[in-house]
Design a protein that fits this description.
400 residues, mainly alpha, Growth Hormone, Chain: A, globular, 84% helix, 2 domains
Length: 400
């Protein structure tokens, strides 16, 4: 595809990347108002997040396999249609039950779009150019995480939490309309039967190269969704004894850090060895956990949350780039979907694991465990990125 012909497709990828990250940010600012309207308990309010995240663990791998076998376009159009429909159902929900149904539809449709964005980049680009665009896609996702709560908070000023879901519905249906005329270059291979496809996929997923990269993705998700996300408001209230509005400030610093970290990775990939990027990303996470461990005020918490974001942004964007280079053309959708599933798996089990650490030792147990995981993650990132880079050079030399 010529450069000028690729521009609409690249713009579509960026749009999908933005949509793929709105699932939780679009609802987080509205939770107190939803809780009040439907008279929810804290457990019921947590279900609004859980019913969105849980379908992704099961649907993302299936989605990736079908996109390899049937083509990207049918799955992409179906996801955007369901995204709009599920968001519209949340907007019009007459009861808590129908809100949960709408959130589940959002989970089924939005969560696979992260993998689809990276898969489409892999279809279009090769080598270093693919690595560069995967980091850009990750940066757009983090920009969405930072911007979406701001938009929803502004819409809340008009008097209804439902407007945030209307925004998500318009984004889903609008993306569907914009997607219709865009040519998607991937066509499923008719020469690869299901048995051969399964053999390729099993070989890749069992390789030390892929497994080591997946371990970095899983470890990062465990740290973020275990030590940081569930306990941020608790840290502000009980650890720092500050007003609750500081929670939003810290979350904004974290989201801005993730965006900056992804952009920084793009600059680093052309100047630093992958193992150095792994060390820098992991070291920032370790320093952030140490700062939270000794935090006595916002002077510690603010740089800590910024470093959590930049470190996670660097590790995740670099890791996604290396994973995208492992797949064969007929398994890209499945590999990137499996990579996204690692994130959902970590997101699902992390609150329980770190919740036990908090129960055992309060914030010392929580952030002490986080520091230990961050140091282990740094070591894993250095080794896995170095090994992935070595294998990529071997593959390139064999193809010359």
């Amino acid at each position: 595809m010529h450069v000028s012909g690729r521009r609409p497709f690249i713009a579509l990828i960026y749009l999908l990347s933005f949509v793929s990250a709105i699932g939780n940010p679009v609802v987080l600012p509205s939770l107190p108002f939803i809780m009040q309207d439907f008279q929810l308990s804290p457990l019921e309010m947590g279900m609004i997040i859980s019913v969105y995240a849980m379908p992704g663990v099961f649907i993302i791998p299936l989605y990736g396999m079908l996109s390899d076998r049937l083509g990207r376009r049918p799955l992409l159009l179906a996801a955007l249609l369901l995204c709009g429909a599920g968001s519209l159902m949340c907007w019009a929900a007459p009861s808590f039950f129908w809100l949960l149904v709408g959130r589940a539809l959002q989970g089924v449709s939005i969560t696979p779009l992260e993998a689809m964005s990276n898969t489409l980049v892999s279809d279009l680009f090769q080598g270093a150019e693919r690595l560069k665009f995967v980091t850009r896609v990750t940066a757009v996702q983090y920009f969405s995480i930072a911007l979406t709560p701001v938009i929803v908070s502004w819409l809340l000023g008009f008097g209804s939490w439902r407007l945030g879901f209307l925004f998500a519905a318009l984004l889903g249906f609008g993306s569907l309309v914009l997607c219709l005329p865009v040519e998607i270059p991937y066509r499923p291979s008719k020469n690869v039967n299901l048995r051969e496809y399964g053999r390729h996929l099993r070989k890749l997923l069992s390789s030390s190269r892929v497994l080591s990269l997946f371990s970095v993705r899983l470890g990062s998700a465990l740290l973020i969704f275990g030590a940081v996300y569930p306990h941020l408001s608790l840290l502000v209230d009980e650890g720092l004894h500050l007003p609750p509005e500081n929670t939003a400030l810290l979350f904004s610093l974290y989201a801005a850090g993730m965006f900056a970290g992804a952009l920084l990775t793009q600059w680093c990939t052309s100047r630093l060895a992958p193992r150095t990027i792994g060390f820098l990303g992991g070291a920032q996470l370790a320093v952030s956990m140490f700062l939270l461990l000794v935090a006595s005020g916002m002077q510690h918490a603010c740089p800590a949350l910024l470093l959590v974001g930049t470190g996670a942004g660097m590790l995740n964007s670099c890791c996604a780039g290396h994973v995208s280079l492992t797949a064969t053309p007929d398994t890209r959708g499945s590999i990137m979907s499996a990579y996204s599933t690692m994130f959902r798996l970590g997101q699902s089990i992390a609150p329980l694991l770190f919740g036990l650490c908090y129960q055992a030792g309060s914030f010392t147990g929580l952030f002490g465990s986080g520091l230990a995981l961050a140091l282990l993650l740094t070591f894993a990132a250095v080794l896995s990125f170095a090994y992935a880079d070595k294998m990529e050079h071997v593959h390139h030399e064999l193809n010359l």
